[in-house]
Write a structure and sequence with these properties.
single chain; alpha+beta; Rieske Iron-sulfur Protein; 9-stranded mixed beta sheet; 6-stranded mixed beta sheet; 26 strands; 23% helix; binds FE2/S2 (inorganic) cluster
Length: 462
């Protein structure tokens, strides 16, 4: 069997199936754990902000309980593997807190506490969160955990390889076609398999389209901080704009990891301003040093806040996992468990909450337009980028720090939407299904698999 993608879903599936005796090949377009999982804040928790009341009111207690059970299964497996496989990944047990800063949201924390109790999760209501700024209440899930997600996946990949999994990095899949099972094509070769798993954050290059998910990006930063003013726990604010907080570390010491504003991928014309806002908010509320790391992470939301995972009803033997709604560590591990069990002919009790065939709004993702249109090259500053007309088409032009322009087609190679310039990451982001391209047009994140073609600019533009 073939797993496409070496993130948390792909490697969990691969390890479980290799252990069960199957022949498993993993194809990763870039490097193990460096994409979506590696960019997450990696909270290993069943506290997904306020979700259980939502699931009980939208569906019923049984559905909410199955969602909790699925995520607890994911958390338990991570704990087990860290211990048994000796994965060196800064794993630490931590309490998880959802906190409010306004009086009007205190009741929501109380409702969530009642909902958590109904699904069998222990949650404690507090008058405030242990944070250095004023909060009006908090809901604590004790003994959750955090880790370094990239290190976890690198360790898991080594453990899987030691059992016989074959992992190929820098191997981008460009087509997944039905062919007496599935034929998976890369630029250099192809492989046939009875089962294919699209563990790519959103399905790519195959017969499955996912307009039932919507791409969403978050701004994240990590600041150096001294131990005396460090926080203890993992925190998610329930007020808008949401802030998510936890500690981490790099080679230079302790870090405060802060997640800020979210926006639909490719719908924001000034991503850099969000970083300015997040840094200002952090410095107002914490004594931090330099901003050591900054990044944008991307995930896919669903209308009912539950992922789609499992065998695609219209494509037997093809498995998908998408729509983690920013809670992809526990949900992603549960997804790996579910897919592995389905391939082995089993079904966990909680499988129905992830059912890819369940009813879902077809209009959830309305797509979008480029936010970067300009009329002339002069409007693009050195280091910047924008979309312009050239003949009958649109081109995506970015200028180097020396002011020299470079152009690629602005039409996303997935389905043709016009990309937006991300002025923080210096990438071209698609407002329809979240593909992300580098300035040279190469694919960073799907569902697109082909690069944006290079465009020769007229000599009088240079
Ligand atoms: Fe679908 Fe760009 S990602 S059109």
């Amino acid at each position: 069997m073939v797993v496409i993608g070496a993130g948390i879903v792909g490697l969990t599936t691969a390890y479980l199936l290799t252990e069960a005796g199957l022949s498993v090949t993993v194809l990763e377009a870039r490097r193990v754990g460096r994409q979506v999982t590696g960019r997450s804040t990696a909270k290993i928790t069943s506290q997904h902000s306020l979700i259980y009341r939502h699931l009980i009111e939208t569906f019923d207690v049984e559905t909410a309980k199955r969602y909790a059970d699925a995520n607890c299964a994911g958390i338990n497996l991570i704990r087990q593997w860290v211990r048994e496989l000796g994965l060196d990944c800064d794993f630490e047990s931590k309490h998880a807190y959802a906190y409010s800063t306004g009086q009007s949201r205190i009741a929501d924390l109380q409702f969530e506490a009642e909902a958590a109790a109904k699904v069998g999760l222990e949650a404690e209501l507090l008058d405030s969160a242990p944070l250095p700024f004023a909060t009006t209440g908090a809901l604590c899930f004790k003994d959750q955990a955090q880790f370094n997600p990239a290190q976890y996946l690198i360790g898991l990949a080594r453990a899987a390889e030691s059992k016989g999994t074959r992992i190929f990095e820098e191997t981008r899949v460009i087509a997944v076609d039905a062919d007496d099972g599935w034929q998976i094509k890369t630029a250099r070769s192809s492989v046939n398999a009875k089962h294919a798993v699209q563990a790519t954050n959103v399905p790519i290059a195959g017969p499955v389209r996912y307009d039932r998910t919507r791409p969403r990006s978050h701004i994240a930063m990590a600041f150096h901080i001294e131990q005396e003013v460090a926080i203890d726990g993992m925190f998610i604010g329930i007020d808008e704009p949401t802030h998510s907080l936890r500690m981490g570390r790099d080679q230079d010491g302790l870090l405060l990891v802060v997640l800020g504003a979210k926006f639909n991928t490719g719908h924001e014309g000034d991503v850099a301003q969000h970083f300015v806002n997040l840094e200002n908010w952090t410095r107002e509320n914490f004594q931090v040093g330099d901003a050591a790391w900054r990044w944008v992470n991307e995930d896919y939301d669903t209308a009912d806040r539950m992922p789609f995972v499992g065998q695609e009803p219209k494509a037997p033997g093809l498995y998908i996992a998408t729509g983690f709604n920013a809670w992809g560590i526990s949900n992603g591990t549960a997804a790996g468990i579910l897919i592995a069990k389905q391939i082995l002919g089993e079904q966990p009790d909680w499988a129905s909450v992830y059912d890819p065939a369940r009813k879902a709004s077809k209009n959830f993702n309305k797509g979008g337009d480029s936010q970067s249109l300009v009329h002339s090259l002069d409007e693009i500053e050195a280091g910047g980028g924008a979309v312009m007309n050239l003949g009958r088409g649109k081109i995506a032009v970015c200028k180097g720090d020396d002011g020299k322009p470079h152009a690629v087609s602005a039409s996303c190679t997935h389905e043709g939407c016009i990309v937006t310039w991300n002025n923080a990451d210096r990438t071209w982001d698609c407002p329809c299904h979240g593909s992300i391209f580098a300035t040279d047009g190469s694919v960073i994140h799907g569902p697109a698999v082909e690069p944006l073609p290079s465009v020769k600019l007229p000599p009088n533009w240079l």
